[in-house]
Amino acid sequence: MRTTAAKNVGSVVRGSDSYMSKQGSVYAPGISAETVGSTAVFLGMVTIPPEGRTRAHLHEFHESAFYLLSGEEVELFTGDRLEHRALAHPGDYLFIPAKVPHIAVNRGKTPAVFIGVRNEPTAQESVVMLPELDALVP
């Protein structure tokens, strides 16, 4: 759903169609280049299906921040060899710096739903897939 934003005028976005990202999570952009012509920020909902996971990747030029809105338990693996493991539960915030390889795994039987923000206007702009790291996380 595209909302036309004029200069010096705010916008209300009622939601947009979701899509499967190349990382393996479902994105529903709220504020983005595609929805309102944002030039610096992406804000949207990101869902990892029950017992699902993302594929190994990094974001070359932007930081990502997430708030785990609902679900059970999500494991976040980060680092050059995905050697750092952290657990997130609803109410937790996650931060992933630019250029840091990562995988998120939903260990629960319900969808893990995040509110996510990035300092770039599209969700897929600087994604670099790292298939050689996928097997490091069961």
SSE order and pairing:
Elements: E1 19-20, E2 26-31, H1 33-36, E3 42-48, E4 57-59, E5 64-70, E6 74-78, E7 84-88, E8 93-96, E9 102-106, E10 112-118, E11 127-129
Antiparallel strand pairs: 1-2, 2-3, 3-10, 4-11, 5-8, 5-10, 6-7, 6-9
Domain Cupin type-2: 45-115
Protein name: Cupin domain-containing protein
Distance between the termini: 36 Å
> Which strand order spans the largest sheet, edge to edge or round the barrel?
1-2-3-10-5-8
Specify the CATH class: Mainly Beta
Radius of gyration: 15 Å
Q: If classified by CATH, what would the architecture be?
A: Sandwich
Give the count of structural domains.
1
Strand content: 35-45%
The computed structural class is: mainly beta
Low-confidence stretches: none
Binned, the helix content reads: under 10%
SSE pattern, N- to C-terminal? EEHEEEEEEEEE
What is the global morphology?
A: globular
Using DSSP, what is the number of strands? 11
- The overall pLDDT, averaged over residues, is 91
CATH superfamily membership, which one? Jelly Rolls
How is the main sheet built?
A: 6 strands, antiparallel
* Fold-level CATH name: Jelly Rolls
What does this structure look like?
The protein contains one helix and eleven strands; from the N terminus they run ββαβββββββββ. With 138 residues, the chain is mainly beta. It has a single domain, classed as Jelly Rolls, CATH 2.60.120.10. A hairpin with a 5-residue loop joins β6 (74-78) and β7. It comes from Aromatoleum petrolei. Residues 45-115 form the Cupin type-2 domain. InterPro entries: Cupin_2 (IPR013096), RmlC-like_jellyroll (IPR014710), RmlC_Cupin_sf (IPR011051), UCP037087 (IPR017102). This is Cupin domain-containing protein.
